[in-house]
Amino acid sequence: MGSVSSLVWDGRGAVISRNVPFAEISELLRRDDVLSWVDLSGAEPQDLERLAGELGLDPMAVEDAVAHVERPKALRYATHTFFTVYSADFDASGLGNGAGGGSADEGSLAARIRLHKISAFVFPRGLITVRAPEFDVEALVQRWEDNADLLGSGVGALVHGLLDVVVDGHFEAVQSLDDTVEGIEDVLFDERVLARRVQRDTYRLRKELVRLRRIVLPMREVVNGVLRHHREAGSSPELDASYDDLYDHVLRVTEWTESLRDMVTAIFETNLSLQDARLNTVMKKLTGWAAIIAVPTAVTGFFGQNVPYPGYGTWWGFVASVVVMVGAGAALYIAFKRKEWI
């Protein structure tokens, strides 16, 4: 069995019990005089199957709750509402400092997003969460304590607190990706940074952004589904403003990811354009020097003929050839230099 913890509040939002034994959970969730939360961390399938039989949990919801990967969604069943979401944080341990002189093997500029699955069963007076051990449950409990006045409104306050913590984590993850975009933009035009490093970081950034968008975009459906059930159940209207604010935050995160996607695309295109421009510069320089070198080659080839010509075998012929080579080479050098070919 995984870790099991619980909290029980009275009608005024004051905690009256903690860590109820597992055998008493089903009875606790049936009580109408208290508000309860049961947390299963790293739960085994048999743990949920036992609760499913006692509480009438839908088998498909139980299967989704224990699955390692599941799309965020909200579903309503006869006795409960079920939803799955993902919290997000980021690992900044591999970030580079963005110094222009860094090598390609130094730390990457792209943050790695970490996702943690959370599933929840919502009852009229109770909430069961099935989560990954990495999810910061202390932040969730603190959020409920900070809004203890709302707990008197019922289980909707618990659900709102959970979703609010999750969406706040999405905000922080998007902010980290936004900072990463700015870091890549800062080194994009720095010729001391290898182009393959920018390519690698931009590709990794796009990959992390895609992962984040997969959990952010469905949040609109999840919040809408929970909000609709909250209103149909006739819950306290005091929570309406909180849920509307939560939905607004979800929309803002979604729009932010859309903006970041456009910015990453622009970085890709700009990086390719810069590589083409640098290649053209190299080709111009090679062409310019090749033209300069071709002049003395042509002159020495002419004076190296095995037939008599004016100046053949004389000192002034040698001087004339040198003057032609130096003069023509200097003229080409000056002309190419003015055109910034060399």
UniProtKB/TrEMBL annotation:
Any one cellular-component term (Gene Ontology): plasma membrane
Keywords, ordered alphabetically: Cell membrane, Membrane, Transmembrane, Transmembrane helix, Transport
InterPro entries: CorA_cytoplasmic_dom, CorA_TM1_TM2, MgTranspt_CorA/ZnTranspt_ZntB
Localisation per UniProt entry: Cell membrane
The species this protein was found in: Leucobacter massiliensis
Top-level taxon: Bacteria
GO molecular function, one term: magnesium ion transmembrane transporter activity
Protein family according to the UniProt entry: Belongs to the CorA metal ion transporter (MIT) (TC 1.A.35) family.
Transmembrane segment boundaries: 286-303, 315-336
UniProt membrane topology term: Multi-pass membrane protein
Principal location: membrane
Name of the protein in its database record: Magnesium transporter
